[in-house]
Amino acid sequence: MSVNDISILFKPPEVPHEPANNKQWPEILQQLGTELPTDYKDFLTLYGSGKIDNFLCVLNPFSQNENQNLEKQLQTQLAVLSELQTCGEILPYKFFPNVGGILPFAITDNGDVLFWHTVGMADEWTVVVNEARSLEWEAFPMSMSEFLANVLNRQIRPAAFPKAFPNSLIFTPTY
User: Fold this and answer.
1) Contact 156, 166 (CB under 8 A)
2) Which of 11, 14, 50, 134 sits CB 3.0–4.6 Å from 173 for a disulfide?
C-alpha cells in the first residue's frame, strides 16, 4: 500500500502547506540519525502539514508549528515517557534512538500518539498507538500508509480512537 492509495480516499490539497522538500531530507535524516519510511516522506510531499478529518495529524519535520513538528514532538513524547518510567511505570517499548525503540509520527486531538516501532529497515517499521493519559498500547503490524488506509476505510479502529472517526475524509492544511 502506498500514499497513492490514500490519495484515493481523501484528496490532497492543491497547494500543500509546508510540503516535504527532497533537498531538505538529508539534513533532517542526519539530525534524527535514521532513515524514515518512504510512505511517510511521500505523504508529506503530497499533503504537507495538516489534519485528517480535523483529528489526526501526521507530524512534519518541516512544520513551524511545534505541536506538529516531528523533531519537537519526538523530544516532547520521549520526555513524557521518560517521566512515566521515572515514576515507576513499566513501558512495553524502548525509546528511539535505541534499536527497536518507538518514534512518534502522528498525534490526535485527544492526545493519542502514533509511533513507529523501529525494528528493521525504515520501510519495515510498524505502527504502535498509545492512548492519551493511559498506559494502553496497541500494535498494528503494518506500515503507516496501510494503517491510515485501514483506519480510514473503517477496517480497523484503534481502541484509542473515537467511534465517529473518521467522520469525513477531508485533509485540512494547518497554518
Assistant:
1) no
2) 50
Please state the domain count of the chain: 1
The CATH number of the domain where 26 resides is what? 3.40.1580.10
Mean pLDDT of the chain: 93
- In contact, 116 and 126? CB cutoff 8 Å: yes
Q: Which residues pair with 103 in a beta bridge?
A: 116
- Is the backbone peptide bond immediately before 166 cis, with ω within 30 degrees of 0? yes
Phi, psi of 107 (to 5 degrees): -135, 160
Specify whether the CB–CB gap between 77 and 37 falls below 8 A.
Answer: no
pTM to 2 decimals? Answer: 0.94
Confidence at residue 137, expressed as pLDDT on a 0 to 100 scale: 94
Say if residue 97 is preceded by a cis peptide, omega within 30 of 0. Answer: yes
Query: For residue 30, what is the enclosing H or E element?
Result: helix 25-32
Q: Which run of H or of E encompasses 80?
A: helix 70-86
Between CA 64 and CA 20 the distance in angstroms is 13
Cβ burial 135-167 (10 Å sphere, 16+ → b, else e)? eebbebebbbbbbbbbbbeeeeebebbeeebbe
Dihedral class, residue 133 (left if φ above 0, else alpha if ψ from -120 to 50, else beta): left
